Amino acid sequence: MTSTYFNGMEAVPFDPDSDGLAFRHYNPSEIVMGKTMAEHLRFAVCYWHNFVWEGNDPFGGQTFERPWFPADTMDLARAKADAAFEMFRILGVPFYCFHDHDVRPEGDSLTESRDRLNEIADYFEQKMENGPKLLWGTANMFSNRRYMAGASTNPDPDVFAYCASTVRTCMDVTHRLGGENYVLWGGREGYETLLNTDLSRELEQMGRFLSMVVDYKHKIGFTGEILIEPKPQEPTKHQYDYDVATVYGFLKRFGLENEVKVNIEQGHAILAGHSFEHEIAMATAFGILGSIDMNRNDYQSGWDTDQFPNNVPEVALAYYEILKGGGLGKGGTNFDAKLRRQSLDAEDLIASHVGAMDVCARGLKAAAAMLEDGGLEAARDARYAGWATADAQAMLADGATLDGIADRAETAELDPQPVSGQQEKLENWVNRFV
Predict the structure, then answer these.
(1) Which of 3, 227, 287, 290 would give a disulfide with 82, using CB separation of 3.0 to 4.6 Å?
(2) CB 165 within 8 A of CB 113
(3) In the listed set 324, 346, 373, which residue is the last one of a domain according to the structure?
(4) Number of domains in the chain
């Protein structure tokens, strides 16, 4: 069925001169560095914030009134899907993402929840014939009270088994719908206090679970990527998957660094004390960049507020690292962002994404221009030019010893002098593009 929630709104056009609702920078067919914008950006709309969230916050309840709320029946779940796919059509996005909990009501039993997910997947298949593809699926293993002490890290082995069933079903559905990735979002994988926590045991459980997920991927012939989403302090105080570096160390420990990549969220990067571009560059350096969630935080609140991006310079630096690293591959730009509680109209859902997509398009073009200019890479190359000499390379070669290097320094009476990092000059250079 076609939803009436958006009142028959037409698809948003690309029209830089429009005074109405239109894309002014995102032209999906525009060529940037040999690929279309659509191919570079691979936009996705998330199901949860747009169609599940009711507008509540820690101090107030529901502000949004949607005709599919509370979505506690399969009929309402289908009505929600009708609205979602209508929104995807209006925006012209190529992808969407969901948790199992987003798209079907919880059943009275584990098997009923499984059957309901498969039922709604049948409905999705019909709608996807001429619509968007699935960027990734995932399982909500954090909201229900059964997960209050973790999912795969839970002290109760029955919860571990429950998670195995949940993830198997979600992976099967993601595979059936042609999903390009499967994400493990560890919202409760961490601990509040060491007083009641066996940390080493929980890490072993988490590693074993992830290994089994990878084994199952190969068993069913799923060709997408398995992704972990790093996230600090949300909501668990001590999160095991704190940032990209932490996740990579975890993957190396369990021999999964060639099997699992990361889905990086801008808001989580900030909460971890990093910039978005830092986390992207780190993932690229490790060879584990998978996909991104594009949003922003309120820098005054100190919490993950999941706002739509509106800062072109920040976005440009993120896409600079993505383009430099070879692009997003099977990943994409998912808007893990939500309206403000006072933005009540159906059109607000469209306008928020149009603005965000334009910001990303402007950022992408700025990033491409910076790369094509080459000024930043030239400055980086010049800063490390000394390492291109034979003597410098020999210090890093197999067989080099601390004694040998130290003796060379003393024989030559080395007295290296500091050289300017020219940070301000480079910041000025970036500002010429953004």
Answers:
(1) 3
(2) no
(3) 373
(4) 2
Model-level pTM? 0.95
Task: Identify whether residues 348 and 424 lie together within a single domain.
Answer: no
Residues 214 and 312 in one domain: yes
How would you classify the pairing of strands 289-293 and 296-298? unpaired
Question: What tokens does 95 get?
Answer: 């992808």
- 306 annotated among ligand-binding-site residues: yes
| Alpha helices for 287-400 (secondary structure H) | 312-324, 346-373, 375-383, 390-396
Q: Is 17 inside any structural domain? A: no
Residues 44 and 332: their CA atoms lie apart, in Å, by 7
| Category of 432 on φ-ψ map: left (φ > 0), alpha (ψ -120 to 50) or beta | alpha
195 within 8 A of 229, measured Cβ to Cβ: no
Strands 31-32 and 133-138: unpaired
- Please tell me the number of Cα atoms within 13 Å of 278 on its side-chain side: 12
pLDDT digits (tens, 9 = 90+) for 253-273: 999 999 999 999 999 999 999
Does the annotation list 82 as a binding residue?
no
pLDDT digits (tens, 9 = 90+) for 113-159: 999 999 999 999 999 998 899 999 999 999 999 999 999 999 999 99
What are the residue numbers of the active site? 99, 102
